[in-house]
Amino acid sequence: MLVTSAFKDQEVIPAQYTCEGKDVSPPLKWERVPSAITYAIIVEDPDAPGGTFIHWVMYNIKMNEIPEGVEKKDKTSYGYQGVNDFNRVGYNGPCPPKGHGFHRYYFNVYALNTELSIKSGKKVTADDLRDMMEGHVIAVGRLMGKYKRD
User: Fold this and answer.
1) Where would you tag: which of 49, 50, 106, 149 has the fewest CB atoms within 10 A of its CB?
2) Which domains are seen in the chain, by residue range?
């Protein structure tokens, strides 16, 4: 189970976690999986006009929670971050086209039975991370928030 103190599952994401606010990552907490070595996070918007849009890629997380506002750099004290579909490292929050109605944002946490090898000099995308995780996922938690811009 994945939760945040910022919003409840299927509720509206507060503006401070979006492009209309501070654009900081929300705090996340999940149940510890006893056999997990590391965790990974992918945040995605399946309602984007061009297909699923990735907002955050993070991996080799050792603890079962992340505070608000993780720094936007490759290596943090919480884990490694890849590149999102804005072509930036770290978290960039919801920013759907104005007047497009609500989009759903899925925060997915993956419990892994290994520590993933770091690809030196390469920015890891969500597809790269999914490839790296293949055969190592032992549990998945999901939280969905909604957001729209008028």
Assistant:
1) 50
2) 2-147 (3.90.280.10)
